[in-house]
Amino acid sequence: MSEVSIIGLDIAKNVFHAHGADASGRALFSRKISRTKLLEFFARQPRCLVALEACGGAHHWARELTLLGHRVKLIPPAYVKPFVKRHKNDAVDAEAICEAAQRPNMRFVAIKSEEQQASALVFRTRDLLVRQRTQLINAIRGHLTEYGWVAPKGPSHITLLSDMLDGEMGSSLPDAATTMFRTMLSLLKELNCKIDELDKEIARRAREDVIARRLMTIPGVGPITATAIAALAPPAETFTRGRDFAAWLGLAPRQLSTGGKQKLGSITKMGERTLRRLIIIGCSAVVLQASKRGAPPGSWLEQMMARKPRMLVTVALANKTARIIWALLIKQEDYKAPVAAAV
């Protein structure tokens, strides 16, 4: 009887499904396993390759299976989907994962440690609080409109509403409305305090991390972006070139090429949302400053701003910055500004 060489594991909350195959790819078993018996099942299996989709909980199970002596690889779900045959269920998904992992050119996701996931949680939490703050500000502005008050855009103007409620606004509004506005303003104040605390924690991490300090030498990359890259991005060696890293971020243009004719569209936005957003925000600040004070004479940025819209230049600069980030991580050097060629 052939020995199992690879196991495709479809994970869930409580019910898992394992599909085993030998070295030739022939199916050996397809078994449903409960969460409590999963590690016991893999402890009985010969040491082999275990493939999982890179979804929620995958990094945890990858670490646990690695401790049992198995080789574990995580596959992006988008690369598993083409191998799903007709109907979708746990058994078919596990078989598709097993099949995808056997492809010689398959791309895999690096397994994260608990410390890496903890560092990423800092940014996820900050993003959550910032979104909640934005929702709260929009709610306050929307409700004020119903009473004829139009608050200017921006968090700084919303904080002034507390003084306005004590004056003319408070006397003209119903008591119930005033109470609710004070409740929302109190929540907004708490969110601002929590976000400030996280910003200080991120700044501390940036000062202590060598990689973050190196990345902050790049124009448009601040403490938040630098520490986010160090926490969320896979090792730079995972990518063959800088363009691959930019594509992983979702900054590479979409290709619609056929018949030898190359057609490029907008950026794909199929990569890491948090890092892409942070890099674009940083580059927008660089472009805005260059539009006011002027870009370095003869530089790439000056040439782009002379013939392209600002937003297009911002995204193009983000793509360029992503490639610079990859180069700095590979070479372990600080950023060196290019010198304009003499005319």
Written account of the structure:
The chain has helices spanning 38-44, 58-67, 77-80, 90-101, 114-145, 155-158, 161-165, 168-172, 175-208, 210-215, 223-232, 242-249, 273-293, 300-307, 310-331; strands spanning 6-10, 15-21, 27-34, 49-53, 71-75, 253-255, 264-267. It is of the alpha/beta class.
Strand order of the largest sheet: 3-2-1-4-5
- How would you sum up the major sheet? 5 strands, mixed
* Number of individual domains: 3
**Rg on CA atoms, Å:** 26 Å
Low-confidence runs = none
Query: Which structural class best describes the helix and strand composition?
Result: alpha/beta
Distance between the termini: 75 Å
Q: What's the β-strand tally? A: 7
Tally of contiguous helical segments: 15
The dominant shape is globular
Keywords:
two-stranded antiparallel sheet; 55% helix; alpha/beta; Nucleotidyltransferase, domain 5; five-stranded mixed β-sheet; single chain; globular; 343 residues
